[in-house]
Amino acid sequence: MSATLETDKFHKYFSGSPLIKVPGRLHPVEILYTLEPEMDYLEAAINTVIQIHKCEPPGDVLVFLTGEEEIEEACRSITCKLGDQVTAMPSYATLPSALQHKIFDPTTDPTKIYDPITRVESLLVSPISQASANQRAGRAGRTRPGKCFRLYTEKSFNELKTQTYPEILRSNLANTVLTLKKLRVDDLIRFDFMDPPAPDTLARALGDDEANPTKTGEKMSEFPLDPQMTKMLIVSPEYNCSNEILSICAMLWKNLRNKL
């Protein structure tokens, strides 16, 4: 399922079910750290790409950044500084899949590149885990020996937490609660979560009503949107304002995705 999956936790949770490990191919990867912490990691990443382009043998460069805005800014900056010497291509979740797949196209150039209180999801820049760092380094060794340039010191790496916090501990659970209710999971407070979410987050998602979902609630569980926006869309025909609500939801969703 994932190179960073805590397999022992899943193995115990599912009562000792069979565990199959499929080893991947990995060539040697050389890990390089900065000597001192970087004050501006985005600028440091861009400068590192330029140094790799000038000093390293032919290959590809994969840069991990924190969000769409930084990724696009890095692509613009690298293209501005290196021109047609490189092909800088973005890749992030909201980019259409056809554009994401362009990173696999051959190039002529040698290098390319929820707060439960406020009920607002936001992107908070935070350190990754050692498991995520090692997984990212492994990307450099899929097809041949590679190098991983870490823009932090080795001491900083050793201070990172071992594993990333599960998504259920960091997300708005409103849609999750709707789905579980549709599956007739009644007692969510005592539900045997593998990693129990914070009580405040679960309480906000449940609201004051712990009953089974209505027909409208079951429809809402099918939408990949925040329940408030989903409810607006479903009831908008009753008020003859579907076009307006569609525009509002699209604007709110785009703004949220840009932040993430």
From TrEMBL:
GO molecular function: ATP binding; hydrolase activity; RNA binding; RNA helicase activity
Family matches, as Gene3D superfamilies: DEAH helicase family, winged-helix domain, P-loop containing nucleotide triphosphate hydrolases
Key words of the record: ATP-binding, Helicase, Hydrolase, Nucleotide-binding
Enzyme Commission number(s) from the entry: 3.6.4.13
Reactions that this protein is recorded to catalyse: ATP + H2O = ADP + phosphate + H(+)
Record InterPro entries: DEAH_win-hel_dom, P-loop_NTPase
Record CDD domains: SF2_C_RHA (cd18791)
Alphabetized PANTHER family for the sequence: ATP-DEPENDENT RNA HELICASE, RNA HELICASE
Protein name from the UniProt record: RNA helicase
